[in-house]
Write a sequence for this structure.
């Protein structure tokens, strides 16, 4: 087990170095941030001076080595646009993104598990078709459209929820529903497929033959065996919820990393873009490692192998 | 992992959300007019939105409207603009050029920063020299470009701004953040990084808090030298999506929405509890023509024909939902240097065809035209109008930053023979509108005309308003005659707000809320 974890951590570090290198150079292909920072009528001398004060006039390889050196000490550098520490900027925004992702995941799970269960148990029925069509609609509709419709209904038509911004629990509801509707569909459909497969297994027939109640067979035997791929999907969804909330955050003016990412890319704020990407990648790697470890808890067969 | 969607997708998404907003307003039958302001105390709270968050609270380290919108309420400049866009005193009570390279400012007495520190000539010297100091790394470069070298203190309330070369529009530039006054002792004691998070100015509102991405809160400065503002609290929130911002205005969560153009606000036009206030702005639009390359555009008749072929009133209706004014040349009537005797080209497609035929293009010709993504609708509309006189335009749209960069280098030639561009003259002096586009040395100039060059030199080096006005008037006549650009319009500053709000904006697009009230 320890060897497995060590290998995975080593692998993750390698991925991080590759991503850091890739992002560093790709960023610089987009153009020069000095042009974004200066007013339209700035002269060439102004641009040179600002380049120098931001350290952008140094040879690329020197900038790269400085950046990687800083990274080794968890120093992500200074934002060019905000003139502030990248770690601080990310730390200011991360809680809002985490809150939104958690809200979206809770919303998705609360609805996806019963929906998947009912659809699998009543396979082929009207309930199955209706539920699966509904979740598919959630998966197909872009976040900005769901968001605007929800705002129209719940902030203007029946004004019960705030339309934007961060605050109490009521501010979280609309963005969480918007962001979670995609994950809801992914999880519910995965669960349904897995359950249908498991229902055909011998051990389910055995459990039923033993005279166990329908509920006990479904929850105790089928659900547990069907959950392994579902946990993988949930893990992947956590990764994308943390990194993929850009549209939802924009529509709801949610002060998270998504909005910061858009601004950073627009402003060619290289250190900030790099920092955010590193955070997303690290989160993704950590969540996936945890999911792998969690397999053993759910399914002893994984532990044995 | 990289950003999961491209910039183009984002723009498309924004356009679709805007369409969603149209749908949204169409379905609305009632809206709350109570406004967010009702939750405030005496004087009330006004909550307004803008498309982006602040980047810093240091007025000398920022360069965009989102920051200025906030900071203009906490800081004062030496001069300012009134609601008619006239240059009026702020922390300076009077000013005069004592020679072409020295402007003398007399300062307001009895003004204190929010921390109690006095404002005086030493503070002015500190402020301007901090701005000029390369170590500050300020993106505000107008003073440096004008050759300003520093400030000489004459007495406690008198100081001179000195430049290497004649600098005729220093007082106008002082109404921008070049002329912003910051507290010397506070910055020296606490450091720049602390100041950038805990700003102290002399302005009508005092800083309370900044929740990044969420809101900036300010409270009234009851001892403001110009009298305490009516509002007791001012909150500015970043709301990037225009449809969301307008929905929040309708639901009463916002009292005012800033940063929109005319066509954005159509969804709430006529909604109950909401009014749309507009004033002529400073953002001017035109098409830059490459007059120097061989081809049809080197012929003055062709350039005149293009101006006759464009129906600017129609463009204003289509692109700006009517919120704009036609301009004769490249700057609005509010700018210093404007000449009322110069008339814009009328829409006359017949005349355009005659001129094209006379120039040897009876069936028109083909050309290319580019624009940045935010001007794509204008590009399409202009191209459509030109096709009616036989000029076939192939269109190309660039991402905003890419377009700007191509415009800056090699006279914008990478953008092709013609491109749509907009230009804001923050100083409200014609010089700011012309400096980058006329005279061969300018970055985006594609018109080499000896007389024009000489006139620009005259207005740029003289501090005599009469001489400058005369040079500008001659230049405008020359521009109409030579038509080196297709002249279009100036867009309005458009502010949808609750009917509870009383506020008259100026044209700069920065919202100084001193005179605003609510309820």
């Amino acid at each position: 087990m320890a060897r497995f974890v060590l290998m995975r951590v080593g692998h993750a570090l390698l991925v991080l170095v590759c991503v850091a290198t890739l992002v560093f150079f790709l960023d610089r292909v987009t153009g020069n941030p000095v042009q974004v920072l200066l007013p339209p009528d700035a002269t060439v001398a102004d641009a040179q001076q600002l380049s120098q004060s931001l350290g952008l006039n140094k040879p690329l390889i020197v900038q790269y080595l400085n950046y990687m050196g800083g990274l080794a000490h968890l120093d992500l550098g200074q934002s060019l646009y905000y003139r502030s520490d990248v770690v601080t900027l990310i730390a200011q925004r991360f809680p809002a993104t985490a809150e939104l992702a958690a809200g979206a995941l809770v919303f998705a799970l609360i609805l996806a598990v019963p929906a998947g269960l009912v659809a699998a148990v009543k396979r082929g029925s009207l309930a199955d078709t209706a539920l699966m069509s509904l979740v598919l609609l959630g998966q197909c509709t872009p976040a900005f459209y769901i968001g605007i419709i929800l705002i129209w209904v719940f902030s203007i038509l029946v004004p019960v929820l705030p339309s934007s911004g961060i605050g109490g629990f009521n501010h979280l509801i609309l963005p969480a529903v918007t962001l979670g509707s995609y994950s809801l569909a992914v999880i519910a459909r995965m669960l349904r497929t897995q359950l249908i497969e498991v229902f055909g297994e011998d051990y389910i027939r055995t459990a039923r033959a033993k005279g166990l109640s329908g509920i006990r067979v479904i929850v105790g035997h089928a659900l547990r065996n069907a959950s392994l791929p579902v946990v993988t999907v949930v893990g992947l969804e956590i990764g994308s919820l943390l990194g993929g909330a850009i549209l939802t955050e924009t529509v709801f003016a949610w002060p998270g990393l998504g909005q910061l990412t858009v601004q950073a890319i627009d402003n060619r704020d290289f250190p900030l873009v790099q920092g955010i990407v590193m955070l997303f990648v690290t989160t993704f790697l950590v969540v996936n490692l945890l999911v792998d470890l969690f397999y053993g808890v759910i399914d002893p067969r994984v532990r044995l192998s | 992992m990289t950003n999961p969607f491209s910039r183009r997708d984002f723009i498309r998404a924004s356009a679709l959300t805007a369409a969603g907003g149209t749908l949204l307003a169409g379905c609305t039958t009632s809206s709350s007019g109570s406004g967010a302001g009702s939750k405030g105390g005496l004087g009330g709270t006004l909550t307004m939105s803008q498309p982006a968050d602040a980047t810093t609270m240091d007025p000398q380290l920022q360069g965009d409207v989102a920051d200025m919108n906030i900071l203009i309420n906490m800081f004062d400049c030496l001069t300012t603009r009134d609601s008619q866009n006239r240059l009026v005193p702020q922390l300076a009570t009077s000013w005069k050029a004592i020679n072409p390279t020295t402007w003398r400012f007399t300062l307001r007495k009895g003004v204190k920063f929010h921390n109690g520190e006095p404002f005086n000539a030493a503070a002015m010297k500190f402020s301007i020299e901090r701005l000029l100091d390369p170590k500050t790394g300020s993106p505000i470069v107008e003073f440096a470009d004008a050759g300003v070298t520093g400030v000489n203190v004459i007495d406690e309330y008198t100081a001179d701004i000195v430049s290497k070369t004649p600098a005729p529009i220093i007082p106008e530039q002082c109404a921008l953040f070049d002329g912003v006054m910051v507290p010397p002792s506070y910055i020296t004691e606490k450091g720049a990084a602390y100041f950038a998070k805990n700003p102290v100015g002399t302005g009508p509102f005092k800083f309370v808090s900044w929740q990044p991405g969420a809101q900036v809160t300010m409270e009234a400065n009851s001892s403001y030298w110009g009298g305490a503002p009516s509002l007791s609290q001012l909150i500015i929130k970043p709301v990037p999506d225009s449809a969301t911002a307008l929905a929040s205005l309708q639901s009463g969560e916002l009292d005012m929405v800033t940063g929109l153009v005319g066509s954005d606000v159509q969804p709430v036009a006529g909604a109950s509890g909401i009014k749309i206030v507009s004033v002529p702005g400073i953002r001017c639009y035109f098409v830059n023509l490459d007059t120097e390359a061989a081809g049809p555009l080197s012929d003055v008749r062709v350039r005149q024909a293009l101006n006759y072929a464009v129906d600017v009133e129609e463009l204003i209706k289509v692109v700006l939902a009517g919120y704009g004014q036609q301009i004769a040349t490249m700057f609005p009537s509010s700018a210093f240097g404007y000449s009322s005797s110069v008339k814009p080209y009328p829409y006359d497609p017949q005349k355009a065809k005659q001129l094209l035929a006379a120039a040897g293009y009876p069936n028109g010709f083909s050309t290319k035209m580019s624009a940045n993504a935010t001007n794509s609708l204008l590009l399409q509309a202009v191209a459509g109008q030109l096709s009616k006189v036989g000029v076939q335009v192939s269109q190309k749209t660039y991402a905003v930053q890419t377009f700007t960069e191509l415009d800056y280098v090699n006279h914008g030639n990478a953008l092709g023979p013609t491109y749509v561009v907009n230009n804001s003259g923050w100083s409200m002096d014609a010089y700011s509108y012309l400096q980058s586009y006329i005279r061969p040395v300018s970055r985006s100039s594609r018109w080499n005309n000896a007389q024009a060059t000489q006139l620009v030199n005259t207005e740029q080096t003289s501090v005599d308003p009469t001489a400058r006005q005369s040079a500008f008037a001659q230049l405008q006549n020359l521009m109409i005659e030579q038509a080196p650009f297709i002249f279009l319009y100036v867009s309005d500053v458009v502010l949808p707000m609750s009917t509870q709000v009383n506020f008259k904006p100026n044209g700069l697009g920065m919202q100084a809320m001193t005179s605003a009230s609510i309820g």
In short: Confidence is low (pLDDT under 50) at residues 1-41 of chain B. Chain B touches chain A through 65 residues (CB under 8 Å). The CA atoms of residues 31 and 271 of chain B lie 7 Å apart. The two ends of chain B are 49 Å apart (CA to CA).
